[in-house]
Design goal:
alpha+beta; 2 helices; Roadblock/LAMTOR2 domain-containing protein (chains A, B); five-stranded antiparallel β-sheet; Roadblock/LAMTOR2_dom (chains A, B); homodimer
Chain lengths: 140, 140
């Protein structure tokens, strides 16, 4: 089961990123440009409430990738855009690598989850058909 | 601490890959072209003894990447070479991404460990300054 339980439509990929709403449940007014399932809302709220989580980004796949929603200062502004591009590129490289390895045999293989431990942080990426969820956290 | 505890020198990057010796401790005759630390030997033997482990590859970083040693049919021959290239490319993409994100600030960040869960397998990559250890296993 995917971590991203998005089943609704993104009506416009060019929507500006939401401001972060770390622990609140966003209102369901018509100003919300995408339909978020309650499961996704819950997952994102839960993520943000973890003290070790520095932030998350929900991205819409495409060229260029767009930030649908984010939380955490680390993903603000230009830095966030850079991060989004890097996350998208990593997922593409891994997926292209799998395709090369499987060489069209059978039905191929798909990336389900990526965990990147760096000297400072841990970046977790959960790809979906049309979305990417990236979470940055600080391991203790 | 790195999973790869290689401290000795690779005397020639062009050495042919070793045949796999899944559970045995390789002889220490002069025919062994690289110096393997006992810790690395132990780690590789332990890895191979796990039933869920389909194989490992110890790679020497460089262009092109070369297979120092491998185990498991999945990493044999051309398929193994393809895998090695893909593993190296993934690590390079992640490392380049980190450099882009950190933009030369401070001392930068480094990839320590990568875990890629796919529909079928899990690929774990542990990069070192000059080596890469890749392990493919089948989660139950």
């Amino acid at each position: 089961m995917s971590v991203i339980g998005v089943s609704s439509q993104v009506t416009s990929a060019g929507n500006p990123a939401f401001n972060s709403q770390p622990n609140g449940v966003p209102s369901s007014t018509s100003s919300a440009p995408i339909g978020m399932t309650p499961e996704l809302e819950q997952t994102l709220a839960l993520l943000s409430s973890h003290r070790s989580v520095l932030g998350y980004m929900l991205l819409s796949r495409g060229h260029p990738v767009s930030i649908i929603r984010h939380s955490g200062g680390v993903f603000d502004g230009e830095h966030g855009k850079k991060y989004a591009g890097v996350v998208a590129r990593i997922v593409e490289t891994v997926q292209a690598g799998l395709e090369e390895i499987n060489g069209g045999e059978n039905e191929g293989d798909d990336v389900k989850f990526l965990r990147i431990r760096t000297k400072r942080h841990e970046l977790m990426i959960s790809p979906d058909g049309r979305y990417l969820l990236a979470v940055l956290h600080e391991p203790s």
